[in-house]
Amino acid sequence: QVQLVESGGGLVQPGGSLRLSCAVSGFTLDYYAIGWFRQAPGKEREGVSCISMSDGSTYNAESVKGRFTISRDNAKKMVYLQMNSLKPEDTAVYYCAAEGLYLPVQAMCVRDSFGSWGQGTQVTVSS
Questions:
Q1: How far apart are CA 53 and CA 45, in angstroms?
Q2: What is the distance between the alpha carbons of residues 51 and 69, in angstroms, rounded to a whole number?
Q3: Which long-range contacts (CB under 8 A, 24 or more apart) does 112-120 make?
Q4: CA–CA dist 35, 112 (Å, integer)
Q5: 20 and 81 Cβ atoms separated by less than 8 Å
Q6: Which residue from 78, 101, 75 is spatially nearest to 3, judged by alpha carbons?
Q7: Distance between CA atoms of 48 and 62, rounded to whole angstroms?
C-alpha cells in the first residue's frame, strides 16, 4: 500500500525558507516519479516540482524556478522540497504525490498525472 507523509510546513516571513519532506513507503521507488503540488484557496492545484526516482531528472514550474529545489534520497525513501525566497503567493497546502513512471517527469508534472497522494502540509508566507 502506497503511503506518502509530508512534513515541514509552517508560517514563514516573505523572503524566508522552508524545507518540506515526503516520506514514502509501500512501493519500490526506482520506477516512480514523485511530485510536489500545491493548492491555494480558490485556485486549481499546481504542479510545483517533480523528480524521477529512476534517473533524478527534475521539473520545476516557472513560478518557482530559481527558488525551489526538489531532491531525493532513495535509500531513505525521502523526497525533499527546499523552498527559498518565499513569497506570499507561495501560500498553499503542499501535497506529495507518487506515480509509476510512464512519461518524462516534466509531462507527468504538467499533466498532474499522479495517483497516490499524501495528506498535505500547510505553508503560509506572511509578515
A1: 22
A2: 10
A3: 112/37, 112/45, 112/47, 114/33, 114/35, 114/37, 116/2, 116/4, 117/4, 118/4, 118/5, 118/6, 118/22, 119/5, 119/6, 119/95, 120/6, 120/93, 120/94, 120/95
A4: 9
A5: yes
A6: 78
A7: 9
Tell me the sheet residues that pair with 5.
Answer: 23
Give the Cα separation of 18 and 69 in Å (integer): 11
Reported as type and span, the H/E element at residue 106 is: helix 105-111
Per-residue pLDDT tens digits of the chain, which is 127 residues long: 889 999 999 999 999 999 999 999 988 888 999 999 999 999 999 999 999 999 999 999 999 999 999 999 999 999 999 999 999 999 999 999 999 999 999 999 999 999 999 999 999 999 9
Number of residues that this document lists for the chain: 127
74 Cβ contact partners less than 8 Å away, ≥ 6 residues apart: 29, 30, 53
9 phi and psi angles, rounded to 5 deg = -70, 175
